[in-house]
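stage 2 :: seqdesign
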């Protein structure tokens, strides 16, 4: 799956977009079970850490206000509906702000067996392995990313200062789906079987 998130900056200060977390579920309710974390810990693409996946952020970015990533297609075991929903928490910082453990996009490089950032220094990704990025970011009181989400979709104003002016931007939870997952082998086999049945008829 090729996914792109972007934000319209309009006449505002240049912004850098981050995907803070993404969770896959069988319903639009991000708290439903089963659920699977694709991105977690303030921007770690944890799905790419698994041995049998190639999921990764696309680097370099097209623009600072856009972030693209690829996730290997999957289905929940035992589910016959062949669909998933992905709920992501997006946020922005001023483009001039240096990425840090709370504002980052990190992917796992299997060749080097290390976490690497799309931009910034490698040390901002250290917490992807341990999962304690809030501690590295100096906000140990924050809970799980899922605990911050009061509903299916929300937007919250955040203020930063640039020079003498205050700029208001938004964070948002966005639901993508339903995404229909087809088994290419099974679908092609079903087509062949349908044609054979039609031939017999």
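stage 2 :: out
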């Amino acid at each position: 799956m090729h996914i792109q998130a972007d934000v319209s900056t309009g006449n505002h200060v240049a912004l850098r977009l981050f995907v803070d977390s993404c969770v896959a579920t069988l319903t639009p309710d991000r708290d439903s079970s089963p659920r699977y974390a694709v991105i977690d810990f303030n921007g770690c693409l944890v799905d790419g850490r698994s041995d049998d996946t190639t999921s990764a952020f696309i680097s370099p970015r097209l623009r600072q206000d856009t972030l693209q990533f690829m996730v290997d297609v999957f289905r929940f075991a035992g589910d016959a509906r062949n669909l998933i929903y992905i709920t992501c928490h997006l946020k922005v910082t001023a483009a001039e702000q240096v990425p840090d453990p709370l504002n980052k996009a990190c992917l796992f490089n299997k060749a080097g067996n290390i976490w690497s950032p799309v931009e910034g220094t490698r040390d901002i990704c250290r917490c992807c392995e341990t999962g304690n990025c809030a501690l590295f970011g100096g906000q140990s009181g924050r809970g799980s990313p899922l605990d911050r989400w009061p509903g299916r979709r929300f937007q919250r104003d955040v203020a930063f200062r640039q020079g003498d002016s205050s700029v208001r931007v938004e964070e948002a939870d966005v639901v993508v789906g339903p995404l229909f997952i087809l088994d290419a082998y099974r679908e092609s086999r079903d087509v062949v079987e349908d044609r054979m049945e039609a031939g017999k008829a």
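stage 3 :: structure notes
- Strands lie at 2-6, 15-25, 35-39, 56-57, 66-70, 83-94, 106-109, 114-117, 155-162, 165-180.
- The first strand starts at residue 2 and ends at 6.
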